[in-house]
Design goal:
single chain, 2 strands
């Protein structure tokens, strides 16, 4: 096997360090979002209850209605879930 020249090796290591740095920045931003959500849930009295805040739509979300477990409505739930994820 041939070896990379020193310049290419340097560039690859530098890029990997940049990726690692951005990954840490992403984790920090996610933690800040979670902290802000916690503070807002506390402010609006939502902690401990089933109601949550959706950060994408900036709305308070009620829990989905309980299902009877007979399988009816399952396809609709899947379509709704796909739309919410895609949105």
């Amino acid at each position: 096997m041939s070896e990379l020249n020193p310049e290419d090796s340097y560039q690859l290591r530098k890029l990997q360090m940049d990726v690692d740095k951005r990954s840490l920045e992403l984790q920090k931003a996610q933690q800040e979002l979670e902290r802000s959500l916690l503070e807002m849930e506390h402010k609006y009295g939502l902690i401990g209850g089933p109601t949550t805040i959706d950060p994408r739509s900036a709305t308070i979300k009620e829990p989905p209605a309980a299902r009877s477990g007979n399988g009816k409505g399952q396809a609709e739930d899947l379509r709704t879930a796909v739309v919410e994820v895609a949105g």
